[in-house]
Structures are given as structure tokens and as C-alpha cells.
Known about the structure:
By secondary structure, the chain is α/β, with parallel strands linked by helices. The protein is built from one helix and six strands, in the order H-E-E-E-E-E-E. The protein has a six-stranded mixed barrel with strand order 1-2-5-4-3-6. A hairpin with a 4-residue loop joins strand 4 and strand 5.
Amino acid sequence: xxxxxxxxxxxxxxxxxxxxxxxxxxxxxxxxxxxxxxxxxxxxxxxxxxxxxxxxxxxxxxxxxxxxxxxxxxxxxxxxxxxxxxxxxxxxxxxxxxxxxxxxxxxxxxxxxxxxxxxxxxxxxxxxxxxxxxx
Length: 135
């Protein structure tokens, strides 16, 4: 294979990768603005699972189901504020497994994984007020 052919393959690969990243970013931004599920003034309830297995993905009209990764879950329901929303690229089945941090009223922070289909249930958005409770 000539140097020119290798260069052409490299350029084609970079263009393809750039295109895939652009599509992923546009898809994420488009779904982030969707208001499927909770209304803007509605406070969603986050049910925190602590077992070894990931809970089923959240569904519209139900509790937001998350898996606790780090932090101390309060014994009773507590208000919280979503601090972050990261790593939301969907898997092969179209389910996103977003990493979120939630600051509770007592100052503690939880790190959780929120599995959901973005077209059905919006991400937990930074600044969003939620009610957090054990599942």
C-alpha cells in the first residue's frame, strides 16, 4: 500500500469519526430540550437502588430509577439538586446510562447512574430540583 493510499484511509477515518461525533452531539442536544415526562415546574422523584444490579430503565410517568454508585443515601425522602449529567451516549439498545451527581439538602452528594431512553424520559438536568428516596 502506498503512502498516498494510507493517507487517504486516515483522512476518511477521521472524517467519519468527526461525523459520528457531530451526530451524537446534535442528538444529545435535541433530546435535552424535549419535555417528555416531567413538566418544567414539576419536581421529579428519584428512587435510588442500592443493590448489586442496575434497575430497569426509567419509564415515562413513573419514578426516575437510579443506581447508587457513591455517597450515603438518606433513610427518608430528601430534597436535592442535580449537579451534573455526564456520559449519556446510548448503548446498542438505545438506552443511555447517564452519570449524575445530586446534592442533598443536608449537603451530602450522591453519584448515581440513570438508565433511560432519551426519547421517552429526559435526563436529570443540572440545576433541576428533585426529591430523592430509597427504592
